[in-house]
TrEMBL record:
The chain crosses the membrane at residues 30-52, 59-76. Keywords: Membrane, Transmembrane, Transmembrane helix. It comes from the Bacteria. This is Uncharacterized protein. It comes from Amazonocrinis nigriterrae CENA67. Residues 111-130 are annotated as: Disordered.
């Protein structure tokens, strides 16, 4: 009996189903973090570079803005990124409708057809009952 219990369980690889990472950093976050860091560098050094008197302040603001952007992105898309990112996928709207036929050659096609049709009133015949 003890041998049957041991045979029921199979060893499973612990890595299966886990998220790929480079050390402590999740692999799916690296590319957005690089984009955020480069954008903060270009904003601070390119646009506002003349406002800072020395390089230390430029790098300090670059690191602060990049850290803020990276932290915000990681909070929004961290463990379950589909919760936030799925909001930006366009969902098709299904409607049911019927287009009205309109002839390109004759604009008043429906009006002409209505004139041709004659509506006759049905006359009710009286049935003689005793």
């Amino acid at each position: 009996m003890a041998e049957k219990g041991e045979q029921e369980f199979r060893p499973v690889n612990q890595i299966l189903g886990s998220q790929p990472s480079l050390g402590p950093l999740p692999a799916d976050q690296i590319f957005p973090w690089i984009v955020i860091a480069l954008t903060s560098y270009f904003i601070v050094n390119g646009i506002f570079g003349g406002l800072f008197p020395d390089d230390f302040q430029r790098w300090l603001w670059t690191i602060l803005i990049a850290g803020w952007g990276i932290a915000t992105w990681w909070i929004l898309t961290g463990g379950r990124s589909w919760r936030f990112l799925s909001k930006f996928i366009g969902v098709p709207t299904w409607t049911r409708g019927f287009a009205r036929y309109q002839s390109l050659l004759e604009v008043n096609h429906e009006a002409k057809n209505r004139k041709k049709k004659h509506r006759h009133r049905r006359s009710r015949r009286k049935i003689n009952t005793i």
